[in-house]
Design goal:
Layout lengths: L89 H8 L11 E5 L2 E7 L5 E6 L2 E4 L1 E4 L2 E6 L8 E5 L6 E3 L11 H9 L10 E7 L2 E9 L5 E6 L12 E2 L5 E7 L6 E7 L5 E4 L15 E2 L10 H9 L8 E5 L1 H4 L6 H14 L4 E4 L3 E2 L12 E5 L6 H13 L3 E6 L25 H4 E2 L4 E2 L6 H17 L4 E4 L2 H5 L21 H17 L4 E4 L21 E3 L1 H12 L2 H4 L3 H5 L10 E5 L11 H4 L4 H17 L3 E5 L28 H20 L13 E5 L7 E7 L5 E7 L5 E8 L8 E7 L16 E2 L10 E7 L3 E7 L2
Parallel strand pairs: 17-18, 17-28, 18-21, 21-24, 24-25, 25-26, 26-27, 27-28
Antiparallel strand pairs: 1-2, 2-6, 3-4, 3-7, 5-6, 7-8, 9-10, 10-13, 11-14, 12-13, 14-15, 14-16, 19-20, 22-23, 29-30, 30-31, 31-36, 32-35, 33-34, 33-36
Length: about 800
């Protein structure tokens, strides 16, 4: 009976020994990459070599035509290789060839022994292995299971190469990777053991490098509970018998240097568990991966030359709290389905964002994920940009191009949970490793995924270093952290009895809070100018408070309350809005409790929630008018702005990750294309005036930047308020959420010192160019010395229906 691994997948049982025989050509048993064509073992490409006959001490004798495996060679001359006087114990060989030896380097390679130096090589399926030293070539003897051994005179370790012959093949010249010292230094191991290696990706994973003058690739993986780990890949036909890795003691790290392997090699780790299972796992620290449905990791190296020095220097000096931030959120694979690579997107996206005057773009997760329908939120490769659109350097090019166009880049980051796919992190070494051992804490009930064990220092290190990785290696300007609320509460989406309280008996996940503090503190220390943003939907205190003051340390937080309440208000028919007036005003009660982003994100336009314009009541004209008025309110409300793709031109349908936005509604062949173009012109101008008006962003995080004029006109569906810049410059916003034109509506206005008290419309969402009726105040309005709304002056305005006006002192 074939045993099952903990995820339910049938596994190959671990053989006691591996008998040499014909090379199998079957697929990788754990992933679609097995369809790769067979390649000849192993990686080197040496010229044809004619091996000289090794003379016997006396009269020469011909070698047998078919020498059986394990047969003894005739005696060899002094200095040539011969059988070891003390061959390895059979039990050691069994452990070695079965993949259960913790230190194969202690057996393989060159080692001083009694009578000389033993050279041992593990080459399953090889017919002949010859070692070349300064004394010339000589053949090793097959002992058992693909293990070839021989003894060279002298105890000084020789410099040698191997000539390996496989059935029906020519000799291949190879270097012996088991001669090398560990590629991880003592400092790396110390930092990993402490959970403080802030550049963990430089130590673990796969790295093309030269060791002792030999080019190859170094591999290292954390699997502390494994009985053994072997390397498998396209270079050994996904059979790891010849590539066992060594354990580096209590660190839990397994390591191996393989000469000749280069960029583009696909690989996995064959993890032998203490229970006897064999798990084929992708590299958690892989910096590139196969394009799904492939699941293998890919060796990669980067020679990308960044051209964004000016941007990075400017970013380091900036303060995101006192700077404009208008974010366009998108899903890279579906933004323009006709653009199928990062480089193709780089040709179009910066121009589009500049045309609409957005300051930042936010990508839904770009990390590798097996299921496209998860939109990237179930990550299997935390250190690898998804190969669906190209390689890591192609993604670097996209970020670089955006920076050179003055666009900041934010990526969604998902440390809250990970999928159960058997090739990824789940039960990585046969036991809970990245997830908690307590099943009540491990299972995420909403998504059928696993949560991270935030209390384990190595797991925290994996995640903290990952946050740093994206900022340092890809010049990312911001990390929007997904599902923070699900991390912070032990009872999140769990019924009573389905969760375990913390050590104080409470529901707070203290380990998760501590992890988030560590992540934020580390990112802000290492990456000047980067901002972290929390998607957090509860009233957890201090999400954006600095860590040294006891907060979680995020720079910004999505204002989910504003989003929910304001959309509830806007979804009502205007005649009913007076009963929901508090929904549109309540956000100002807590507006300065945190540093907020106002999000109209992907979550609000999927799963039956409708697109933004379709949420609005009324006919098509009224829906668009409500949509425009709402955007005018949003852009003038304290906080940064985020708008999901497709909502900038009021597409009518929900977002579909397979089809993307409905770009065709902008085509002149579409009957209502001018309606959609009008909304897009509004978004362009909202952003333009926003950038030009410090009152809308300079004091976003302090009450000094806002004052109500009239927040209580519920019966009339009216709001009016003032935004202030640091120098006191005002902007007045008036929102009329009723379908009635208000003629001669008096609105209070601040006193303008030393001016003629003239105000002008800077933006009117009812303008004809936006698809509105063109009602408004076309000429500057003089403020009368009539006290109103708590202001020393006021003016009578024409308020268009379902519209927002912005007024500023006339220039």
């Amino acid at each position: 009976m074939t045993p099952l691994d903990p995820t339910g997948r049938p596994n190959r049982s671990v053989p006691a020994t591996f008998l040499a025989g014909p090379q199998p050509s079957g697929p990788d048993p754990s992933g679609p990459e097995a369809s790769a064509p067979e390649v000849s073992l192993p990686e080197a490409s040496a010229p044809e070599v004619s091996l000289p006959d090794v003379p016997a001490p006396e009269a020469p004798a011909p070698a047998p035509a078919e020498e059986p495996r394990g047969a003894e060679h005739p005696a060899t001359p002094l200095g040539a290789l011969r059988l070891p006087e003390a061959p390895l114990p059979p039990a050691e060989v069994d452990r070695l060839v079965s993949g259960q030896h913790h230190d194969p380097h202690a057996l393989l390679g060159a080692h001083p022994v009694h009578g000389g130096t033993a050279i041992r090589v593990l080459r399953p399926f090889a017919e002949r292995v010859v070692v070349e030293t300064a004394q010339g070539p000589a053949e090793l003897t097959h002992q058992q299971g693909g293990l070839f051994t021989g003894l060279v005179a002298g105890r000084e370790l020789p410099d040698y190469t191997l000539l390996v012959t496989y059935p029906d093949g020519e000799p291949l010249r190879q270097h012996d990777g088991y001669r090398t010292a560990p590629t991880l230094g003592e400092l790396d191991l110390h930092l990993i053991s402490e959970g403080r290696h802030e550049q963990l990706w430089r130590a673990l994973g796969s790295h093309v490098r030269t060791v002792d003058g030999v080019a190859g690739t170094a591999f290292a993986v954390w699997a502390p509970n494994a009985a053994g780990v072997r390397l498998i890949g396209d270079f050994n036909h996904w059979n790891g018998t010849g590539h066992p890795m060594r354990s580096l003691g209590s660190s839990g790290i397994w390591e191996l240097f393989v000469p000749g392997l280069a960029e583009g090699t696909t690989y996995k780790y064959e993890v032998h568990t203490r229970q006897g299972w064999v798990l084929d796992k992708a590299d958690p620290l892989a910096r590139a991966a196969q394009c799904p449905p492939g699941t293998a990791s890919v060796v990669t190296s980067s020679d990308y030359r960044w051209q964004d020095d000016e941007w990075m220097a400017r970013r380091a000096r900036a303060s995101h709290h006192r700077a404009p931030m208008s974010v366009y959120e998108l899903h890279l694979p579906s933004w323009r389905p006709d653009l199928t690579t990062y480089r193709a997107i780089a040709e179009e996206l910066p121009r589009y964002l500049k045309e609409l005057n957005f300051t930042h773009v936010e990508f839904m997760p770009v990390m590798e994920h097996p299921f496209g329908g998860s939109w990237g939120y179930q990550v299997s490769g935390y250190y690898a940009p998804t190969a669906r659109l190209g390689g890591p350097d192609d993604f670097r090019h996209l970020v670089d191009t955006l920076h050179r166009h003055g666009i900041g880049v934010i990526v969604d980051w998902v440390p809250a949970h990970f999928p159960k796919d058997d090739f990824a992190l789940a039960r990585f070494d046969g036991e809970p490793l990245y997830e908690p051992a307590d099943p009540l804490r491990a299972e995420h009930p909403d998504w059928g995924t696993l949560e991270f064990d935030y209390g384990r220092k190595e797991v925290r290190n994996f995640l903290v270093a990952n946050a740093v990785y994206w900022c340092e290696e890809f010049h990312i300007d911001g990390l929007r952290v997904d599902a923070v609320a699900s991390m912070l509460y032990l009872d999140y989406s769990r019924e009573g009895g389905a969760w375990t309280p913390n050590r104080y008996g409470g529901r707070e996940n203290l380990d998760a809070a501590s992890f988030l503090q560590e992540m934020n503190a580390t990112v802000y220390r290492r990456c000047p100018g980067v901002v972290t943003i929390a998607e957090e939907s509860t009233a957890w205190d201090g999400v954006t408070r600095p860590t040294d003051a006891g907060g979680l340390g995020f720079g910004l937080k999505w204002n989910m309350g504003w989003m929910h309440d304001s959309l509830v208000y806007m979804s009502k028919e205007p005649v009913h809005r007076k009963y929901h007036h508090n929904e549109i005003t309540f956000s100002m009660v807590y507006a300065y409790s945190e540093n907020y982003v106002l999000p109209i994100s992907h979550d609000e336009v999927v799963h039956g929630k409708q697109s933004l314009v379709s949420k609005m009541p009324g006919d098509w004209w009224q829906q668009r008018a409500n949509h425009r008025a709402y955007l005018g309110f949003m852009w003038s409300h304290p906080g940064k702005q985020l708008l999901y793709m497709g909502q900038e031109f009021a597409q009518g349908a929900e977002w579909d990750h397979e089809q993307g936005p409905q770009w065709w509604v902008l085509d002149e062949q579409w009957p209502a294309h001018q309606d959609h173009l009008g909304v897009r012109r509004l978004v362009r101008d909202l952003n333009r005036h926003y950038l030009d008006t410090p009152a809308l962003w300079e004091l976003d995080t302090t009450p000094d930047g806002f004052r109500w004029l009239d927040g209580g006109a519920a019966d009339d569906n009216l709001l009016s308020y003032v935004r202030y810049a640091a120098d006191g410059s005002p902007l007045v916003a008036v929102c009329n959420f009723s379908p009635v034109v208000r003629h001669g509506r008096r609105v209070g206005l601040p006193r303008l010192a030393g001016r003629d008290q003239l105000w002008e419309e800077v933006l009117n969402t009812d303008a004809e160019e936006y698809g509105g009726g063109g009602i408004g105040n076309s000429h500057p309005v003089k403020a009368d010395p009539v006290e109103w709304d708590g202001q020393p002056r006021s003016a009578e305005l024409v308020l268009p229906p379902l519209a927002t006006l912005w007024l500023r002192p006339a220039r």
